Amino acid sequence: MNVIQPQVDGPLKVTGDIEIVAADGAVLKRMVEARLCRCGRSAAKPFCDGSHTKAGFRDDVRVGAYQPKALDPGAPGARLCITLKPNGPLRCFGEMQLCDSKGAAAWIGGQASLCRCGGSKNKPFCDGTHKDIGFAAE
Ligand code: FES
To answer: Which of 9, 18, 13 is closest to 79 using CA atoms?
Structure first.
């Protein structure tokens, strides 16, 4: 199972069988661990470069914000494909477990759009705020 651990006031720590995919479907990188920007300020997107500290990014990774849901039967594979939606979220497809601030499983699913602009009110999920704030990223 791939594990996504949002760090308090920091990036998404992702471990497992991970594939970072461009919007055109090109595989950019395969990895077993990544720290992905979710404050929207990194100069090395989609990866974290530590800019969240200077930006004053805040998120306490509350379990109550999540919508628990069963794994979509048959749809996802063991590999977690993370597609970079231009000017939008990280579109994740594959088996994944999202953890709370203490590392406990808070959500298990097969597909999710995770915020990378820093503005969602339902972090770590995207709520469409990226459009309102003019988030720009490849
Ligand atoms: S990427 Fe942040 S709300 Fe969509």
So the answer is: 18
Strand partners, 103: none
**Look-up of token digits 């497809």:** 93
Cα–Cα distance between 25 and 133 in angstroms, integer? Answer: 26
The CB of 82 under 6 Å from ligand 1? The reply is: no
Q: Which residue type is seen at 94? A: G
CA of 89 to the centre of ligand 1 (A): 5
pLDDT at 52 over 60: yes
What H or E segment, with its residue span, contains residue 54? helix 51-55
The pLDDT of residue 67 is 57
Could you tell me which of 128, 39, 49 has the C-alpha nearest to residue 88?
128
Block residue for tokens 């990226």: 130
* Per-residue pLDDT tens digits for 87-128: 999 999 998 999 988 888 888 888 899 999 999 999 999 999
Residue ranges of E strands in 24-79: 27-36
